[in-house]
Amino acid sequence: MAPPSRVPSRPSAHPDGRAEVRRLAQARIPTAHGELRCVAYAAADGVEHLAFVAGEVSGAAGALVRLHSECATGDLMGSLRCDCGAQLDEALRRVAAEGTGAVVYLRGHEGRGIGIAAKLRAYQLQDTGLDTVDANVALGLPVDGRDYGAGAAILHDLGITGVRLLTNNPDKVAALARHGVRVAGRVPLLAPAHGESLRYLRTKRSRMGHLLDGLDSPAGTAGAADTAGPDHPHPPRTTTTAPAPAAPPAEESP
C-alpha cells in the first residue's frame, strides 16, 4: 500500500505585503520560567494576539522565537491528543533561559485555523479511524488554514530583524520568509509523545511534512512535534511518557 501523500499547508494570504497589527497594551508577567513582558496586539481582522518577550529584542538578528498557534484543549486543559501544551511550556522555558527572544501566541489558529467546535467534530471522526488530515477534509475544511501574517507583523513591530525559529514545521519557516522575516535557523521543539498523540504526530510527519524523529521506536513513545491539533482513535486509553531529551537538538540552517 502506497504511503499517504503529503498535504501542504495553505500559502500565506499576504505574499507581497505585510499584515498590519496595532499595539494595545503591555505588562510585566512573572512566569514559572522567569519574568517576561507581555504585549497585546490587535490585527486588522479584530483578533487579538500576544507576544511574551524576554530581554531587549529590538534590533536582534537571531532572536529565539516561537510562533505558537492557539490550542485551548492542549494549552489550557493539558489534552494528550496533541503536543501543543508541552510545546508552549518548553518554548517559554527556552526563551526565558536564552534571555532574548519571544513567544508569539497567535489566536484564531485553533485546530489549525478551523475553530474549536470544528476541531471537536474532527476529533469525533478521528475516533472512528480517520487521521487528522482526512477528518478535516471530510468536514469540508482546510487541512491547515493558518496565516502567519499577523505573527510576522508582531515581530516587525518588536524590531526583531531575524529569528531562530522554534518549530518542526518547514512550512512555518517558508511563511515567515514570505512575510519578510529572515529565518537564520530552525530549532527543533521536542515534546514527548503519548499513546493518545502518537498517530497524530506520525500523520503530521508523513502527510504534512513536519520534521519529527523517534516516532517509530518499539514503544512508540519518543517524539516531537509542532502546533495545534488532534488525534488518536480508541483504543488505547493508557498513556506513557518518554523522558525528555538530555540536550536540545542541534539548530539547523534554513
From TrEMBL:
GTP binds at residues 66-70, 87, 110-112, 132, 167, 172. Keywords: GTP-binding, Hydrolase, Metal-binding, Nucleotide-binding, Riboflavin biosynthesis, Zinc. Zn(2+) binds at residues 71, 82, 84. Its EC number is 3.5.4.25. Residues 218-228 have a biased composition (Low complexity). It catalyses: GTP + 4 H2O = 2,5-diamino-6-hydroxy-4-(5-phosphoribosylamino)-pyrimidine + formate + 2 phosphate + 3 H(+). Pathway: Cofactor biosynthesis; riboflavin biosynthesis; 5-amino-6-(D-ribitylamino)uracil from GTP: step 1/4. It is an enzyme of class 3 (hydrolase). PANTHER family: 3,4-DIHYDROXY-2-BUTANONE 4-PHOSPHATE SYNTHASE, GTP CYCLOHYDROLASE II-RELATED. This is GTP cyclohydrolase-2. It comes from Streptomyces ramulosus. The gene is ribA.
